[in-house]
């Protein structure tokens, strides 16, 4: 099955008074590249979520976003570092005694002291939270996969149509080949007659030798045969159930090389025109293949 690398999925869940949004975006990439953006207090689950993605996707740039709305996920508590506070107060009392200060040490002053108070999150029921987040991410990931499959079917349909067009152009090249050889004969005969002013028979050995040399130089039979082979392989690969993007990309490169060779051997205007059309179709195939997983 052909799968695209483009996809999107989103799932929201509620944990207590907190609402979590899990969002996954996928675009084409040479390899599997996963980027996760999570709140700091959820970083402990990041690697587990990435492993889940690696289990079902093999290529693409994957962006995972988890956002939080409402109350904090975990309960919070305020801690006091009593040892530091005792040292602060001891030093403040010493300053008062040393300089005969009369001002009292107020609670407002205490709250402004550094490192005395800290806010900690109480991580309770983390297993339940992990299960909820994992389940939500799997739902979002399934939606990504559904979208990638649907887009993949559209890509497959387009690629098959382009394979048909390329085959049609190859048939035209094969059909025109005998006509080109005859044209070589007429061109050489006309050129010799122009210089000798004498009638030349078409079966003249010298003419046939020249035609043979030109025909050999312009022979694209091998290239056309290899092109048919590439198209056959391309069609077969489209039916596989595994990731096929890299294999298709390689075949398209080989097809492009064969068509360039055909173009360099062509001395006929019509053949050159069809070669340009062939290159255009193969270039479009290459663009589509870039998004196949």
UniProtKB/TrEMBL annotation:
Chain ranges of the Endoribonuclease YicC-like C-terminal domain: 174-293
Identification of the protein by name: YicC family protein
Cofactor requirement: a divalent metal cation
Molecular function per GO: hydrolase activity; RNA endonuclease activity
Organism: Halobacillus mangrovi
Keywords: Coiled coil, Endonuclease, Hydrolase, Nuclease
Residue ranges annotated for the Endoribonuclease YicC-like N-terminal domain, each copy included: 2-157
Membrane-spanning ranges: none
Highest taxon of source: Bacteria
């Amino acid at each position: 099955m052909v799968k695209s690398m483009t996809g999107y999925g989103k799932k929201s869940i509620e944990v207590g008074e907190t609402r979590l949004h899990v969002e996954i975006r996928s675009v084409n990439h040479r390899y599997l590249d996963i980027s996760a953006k999570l709140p700091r207090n959820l970083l402990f689950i990041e690697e587990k979520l990435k492993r889940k993605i690696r289990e079902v996707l093999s290529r693409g740039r994957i962006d995972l976003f988890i956002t939080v709305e409402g109350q904090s996920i975990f309960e919070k508590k305020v801690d006091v570092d009593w040892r530091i506070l005792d040292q602060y107060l001891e030093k403040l009392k010493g300053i008062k005694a040393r300089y005969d200060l009369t001002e009292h040490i107020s609670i407002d002053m205490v709250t402004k002291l550094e490192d005395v108070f800290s806010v900690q999150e109480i991580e309770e029921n983390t297993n339940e939270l992990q299960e909820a987040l994992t389940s939500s991410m799997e739902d979002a990931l399934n939606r990504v996969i559904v979208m990638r499959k649907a887009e993949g079917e559209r890509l497959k349909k387009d690629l098959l149509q382009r394979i048909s067009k390329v085959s049609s152009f190859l048939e035209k090249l094969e059909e025109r080949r005998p006509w080109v050889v005859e044209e070589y004969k007429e061109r050489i005969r006309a050129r010799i007659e122009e210089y000798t002013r004498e009638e030349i028979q078409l079966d003249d050995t010298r003419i046939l030798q020249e035609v043979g040399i030109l025909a050999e130089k312009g022979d694209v039979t091998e290239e056309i045969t290899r092109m048919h082979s590439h198209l056959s392989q391309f069609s077969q690969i489209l039916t596989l159930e595994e990731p096929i993007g890299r294999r298709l990309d390689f075949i398209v490169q080989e097809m492009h090389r064969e068509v360039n060779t055909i173009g360099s051997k062509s001395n006929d205007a019509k053949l050159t025109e069809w070669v340009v059309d062939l290159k255009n179709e193969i270039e479009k195939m290459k663009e589509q293949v870039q998004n196949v997983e």
